[in-house]
Amino acid sequence: MAVAWDTPFESPRQAVRLDAIGGRYDPWLLGVSIALACFGVVMVASSSIAIGEGLGVGPFHFLEKHLVFLGAGIVLAGWVMRTELKPVEQAGQWLLLACFVLLLLVFVPGIGVSVNGARRWLNFGLSNFQAVEAVKLLYIVWLASYLKRYSEDVTATWPAMLKPLGVAGAMVVLLLLQPDFGSSSLLLAITAGMLVLGGVNMPRLFGPVLVALPLLAVVAIAEPYRYQRLTTFLDPWADPFNSGYQLTNALMAVGRGEWFGVGLGASVQKLAYLPEAHTDFILAVIAEELGFVGVCAVIAAYALLVGRAFLVGLRCVEMRRHFAGYCAFGIALWIALQSFVSIGVNLGLLPTKGLTLPLVSSGGSSVLMTCAALGLLLRISYELDRAQRQVARLRGDAAAGADAGGAQ
C-alpha cells in the first residue's frame, strides 16, 4: 500500500522509520587512522629504546607511556564518536571560554609547569598536559559554529570577519608569552583557511593578512634563539656541533636510509646522536630505517587522511550541514599543516618548530587530542552517511508513492 505524504496519521510512522536509519563511519578515515596509530607504536618503540636507557628509566618507558596515552585517546575518541553533533555545536561559546582558561592556567603557579624555559604544560598529577593541544580542537569547533551562525555576515561585512581574527590574535598573544611560536603560526593558518573555506571575501581578508605577516616576521626574529633557527636551517653544516646539531644529524639519518632504509630498528642516529628522536624528529628515524619508500608511504597516508576529511567536509556543506563541514575542514587543515611542518623540519626544508607528527610521534597531549579530533571527524562521517541514507529513503518512498498514485 502506498504511503500518503499528506495523511497526518501516516507521517509519524514515516518519521520513526527515518529516525531508525543508522549510519556508518567512513571506512577510509577509520582505516588510515588505525594504520597511522599502529605504525606510531612501532616507530616509538624503535626510536625510544636508546633514549630510555640513556635516561635510566628503562628501554620501554616511552613506549609504555605512549601506549597509555594512545589507549586513553581511543577511549576519548570512542566517546566523541557516540556524541551527537548538535549539543557540541550549541556548546561553542563555552568551548571558546575553555580555550582562554587553558591558555591562562599555564601561568598559574602550581598548575602551570615550566620545561626548558617554556610554560606550556599543566600539571595533572600523573602527567603534564600541553594546553595548546586541547585549544586547537576546541577552537576549531567554536570557529565552525561561528561560521555557520554568521556565514552571510562573514562574507559581506568587516566586523563579522574580524571577530574570529581578533579571537585568534588574542590566543596568539597568550601563546607567544609561553612562548610557542609554532602553535601560534598553526592557529593563525587554521583560522585563515577556515575563513576562506567558509566563504569570506578574499580581497577583504588580504588586508589583515598583509598586516599580520610583517608582525609575525618581527616576532620570529625578535628572540635570538628564533633568529638562530631561521638562519641555521639555511646552512646547518656551518655549525654542525652547536646550532646545527639537530638538523645535521636528522639529514644524516635521512641520507643514510637511501631508498629502502637500513632496516627496522637498525638506526644509528637514534643512539644518542639525534635529539628528540622519538618526538619531533621521528620522521628522520623513519627515513633511516625504512628509506625513501617508507617516507613516501607515511606522506601518502597523511594525504589520504586529509583528502578524505576534506571530501567529507565538502559533502556535508553540499547537504547544508555547515557546522559538520566546517569542523571537518578545520581538522583536515590542522592535521595537514602540522604534518607538513613536521616533515619539512625533518627534511631540512623548514626551521625547527617543535611540532610532533600526528599519531606517530611520542607525546601524550598530542596523541590524546589527535585521537579526539579523529573521533569527531568519524562522528561527522557517521551523521553524513545517516543523512544520505535518510534522503535516499525519502526519495525512494516519494517515488513509490508517485508510482502508486499514477497506477490508481
**Alpha carbon gap, first and last residue:** 11 Å
Question: Which quaternary structure do these chains form?
Answer: single chain
Low-confidence stretches: 1-16
What proportion of the residues is helical, as a percent range? over 70%
Helix count from the secondary structure assignment: 15
Biggest pleated-sheet summary: 3 strands, antiparallel
- Widest sheet: strand order? 1-2-3
- Rg, rounded, reads 24 Å
> Outline, from the CA principal axes?
globular
Secondary-structure class: mainly alpha
Mean pLDDT, to the nearest integer, reads: 87
Overall structural domain count: 1
Would you write up a description of this structure?
The chain has helices at residues 11-19, 27-55, 61-81, 85-90, 92-105, 131-149, 151-156, 158-176, 181-197, 202-222, 224-232, 245-257, 282-318, 322-346, 364-407; strands at 112-115, 118-123, 128-130. A hairpin with a 2-residue loop joins β1 and β2. It has a 3-stranded antiparallel beta sheet with strand order 1-2-3. The protein has one domain (24-386). The chain is mainly alpha-helical and 408 residues long. The longest helix has 44 residues, at 364-407. Residues 1-16 have low confidence and may be disordered. Helices cover 71% and strands 3% of the residues. The protein contains 15 helices and 3 strands.
